[in-house]
Amino acid sequence: MSFVILIASIIIITAISYTLQRNKALNKDNYLRIFKRRSNKRNSLISKFKSRHYNLLLKSPELSIEISTLEPEDILREKASIHRLRLEKFGQSKMNNITYYKGPRGGIYIYTESGRKKYI
Fold it and tell me: I want to staple 93 with a disulfide (CB 3.0 to 4.6 A). Which of 44, 74, 86, 118 is the partner?
């Protein structure tokens, strides 16, 4: 009789330890899923903000596009293309607080402090 109780208790202890180990593994997976979900939400919010900001820059040439050499190349290219599109559409665009104008023959110029056109 004691032999049967011993085997039954070993089986019960083994089942309980297996269940606990399985729950720990599931919790780790849940934590990983939660982390991935939060990361994706954060990335989508950042991309939505960038797209709204770039759309706002495209609509108004009076807003200055700030370009720094420390930015990644893809962002620099995107800002430069926005600058070129604004020059094409509106005939003027402001970049790094300098207003650039597009002439009637397609030349790009700025006004100097003395009021003269300086072609670039």
Answer: 86
